[in-house]
Design a protein that fits this description.
Layout (H helix, E strand, L loop, with lengths): L1 H9 L7 H9 L4 H15 L21 H14 L5 H12 L4 H17 L4 H11 L5 H15 L7 H9 L7 H13 L8 H10 L6 H17 L1 H16 L4 H14 L12 H5 L23 H5 L33 H10 L1 H15 L4 H9 L5 H56 L5 H41 L1
């Protein structure tokens, strides 16, 4: 993902197609990873869709996909649609519309409307397919179809008069509030094309006005006002009746809207010119709506960041800066090499290796601290401030005494070493004697019982000598270590 991000922002356009294969490989991982990768593909395909067009089948929706993964794949297929592959994509969408997931089916209808609005070659075919969906029993699919048809008809209404008439006849069958409101808006907006059907629709809506939802009531008031502007003589009483119903409605917005339209349509002495421009206000040409993606703000943050994943600005987020117009100073690329400082435990290890060498020195320092006797300490503590010459003499005497004490300790250590060497020579002789005794025992195996008893006593003595030998060998080893320490101190 990091490599894809680097290529997307830094690599030249000729090499950006490498991003597609790397991201498609990541789609084989877990659902959580799929969601992030698909969201990244949505953002990239919005600007470089040609790199994903050869891999169209990789974005087909599967039954085991999660709801969010389905929406992202649907968005990618809609983005990649063009005149060459629209027939394949629409056949795939026809299967998605029949899905048991009603929300996904509604999103698919919205995607069909987007394809119809961007590719003029399939607009009529898409409209016919959406009109056929209006006969379904599922209210969610019917409502979404009506909303999408309403937006598509605004693009070029003059070519689809028959579709408008077909939608008007289905107003009684549609029960979803948003769909009924969309049909009423179409009737009011294109009332001049269906002048015979529009008043009859208003009559039916007036009967059920009190039972309708707020959004439907608002569109009934808009229809009444537009019909009054177009044909006031035929609809005057019906419009007056609808306004009176809205005047006593429980909803504040409905009452306010009825009061506004009444003041706009009915001419009074206070505002005689306002009613003259009512037709221009109500029937003004309106721009065709743009069917936008249901996934918004996908390119608001930098690709691969936490803010991009969650869709909100995280703490510490910084936008990726643009390329500078002038090249920066090359010195900014110089990197300082930092030499790592050894840690404390490394230095402690090094200090521990030198403890053997300094052991003798520490021992000497301890002895030097106790070099003076109690009487001398009392004398030094009771002495007052003398001259500089007396202090120098005392220092010289102390140094001489320290040297003498050190020499005495050295002689003692040498004597101990000599003693240990003598012990080793003695026990070597004992070893030789024991080996000779063993040989004699081998020769005299055929002797008497008295000789056997003597042999047993000799074997016991040999075992004791072996134990003593082990002990003295241990002391010899220690003496050698002491000798090594002494040599190091020298």
């Amino acid at each position: 993902m990091a490599v894809a991000q680097l290529y997307y922002y830094v690599a030249p356009r000729s090499e950006i197609q490498i991003v597609a294969k790397s991201l498609l490989r990541l789609l084989r991982h877990h659902r959580e990873i799929q969601t992030i990768i698909l969201k990244s593909i949505v953002s990239i395909a919005d600007k470089h869709k040609q790199i994903f067009e050869p891999y169209l089948k990789s974005f087909y929706v599967h039954s085991n996909d999660s709801g969010l993964v389905k929406r992202y794949k649907l968005e990618i297929l809609t983005t990649l649609a063009n005149a060459s592959n629209i027939s394949t994509i629409l056949r795939e969408f026809q299967t998605y519309v029949l899905s048991s997931d009603k929300d996904f089916a509604a999103h698919t209808i919205h995607a069909i409307g987007r394809c119809a609005s961007t590719i003029s070659e399939v607009t009529e075919a898409c409209l016919n397919g959406l009109v056929a969906l209006m006969s379904k029993k599922d209210e969610t699919i019917v409502a979404e179809s009506v909303v999408v048809i309403k937006k598509l008809l605004q693009i070029n209404p003059s070519e689809y008069n028959e579709i408008i008439k077909h939608i008007v006849r289905m107003v009684d069958k549609v029960t979803v509030p948003i769909a009924r409101a969309s049909i009423l808006w179409l009737i009011g907006e294109y009332s001049d094309r269906i002048s015979k059907l529009a008043p009859d629709v208003l009559r039916k809506m007036a009967k059920s006005f009190a039972d309708e939802e707020t959004i439907v009531k608002h569109q009934i008031l808009n229809l009444a006002a537009k019909l009054y502007v177009v044909n006031a003589k035929q609809t005057h009483l019906l419009v007056q009746y609808v306004f009176n119903l809205a005047k006593y409605d429980t909803n504040y917005d409905t009452r306010d809207k009825a009061r506004l339209l009444r003041a706009l349509l009915i001419q009074t002495d206070k505002c005689p010119t306002l009613s003259k421009h009512a037709k221009k206000i109500l029937l003004a040409p309106k721009p065709a709506p743009i069917l936008e993606s249901i996934i918004r703000d996908h390119d608001r943050y930098t690709l691969g960041t936490l803010s991009f994943v969650i869709g909100q600005k995280a703490v510490g987020y910084n936008d990726l800066p643009d390329f500078p117009l002038e090249p920066p100073d090359p010195s900014v690329r110089n990197v300082e090499i930092v030499i790592p400082v050894p840690s404390q435990h490394v230095s402690s290890k090094r200090s521990s290796t030198t403890t053997g060498a300094t052991f003798g020195e520490k021992k000497k320092s301890v002895n030097n601290d106790k070099f003076y006797s109690d009487e001398e300490e009392e004398e030094t503590s009771t002495e007052g401030p003398d001259t500089d010459n007396e202090e120098d003499d005392d220092d010289d005497e102390a140094e001489e005494e320290e040297e003498e004490e050190q020499n005495e300790e050295d002689e003692k250590e040498k004597q101990t070493i000599i003693q240990h060497e003598n012990h080793t020579n003695e026990y070597e002789q004992l070893d030789a004697q024991s080996t000779n005794n063993i040989e004699e025992e081998d020769k005299d195996e055929s002797g008497d019982s008295s000789e056997e008893e003597e042999d047993d006593e000799e074997s016991e003595s040999e075992e004791s000598t072996d134990d003593e030998k082990v002990k003295y060998l241990f002391y010899i080893g220690r003496s050698k270590k002491i000798l090594d320490l002494y040599r190091r101190t020298e």
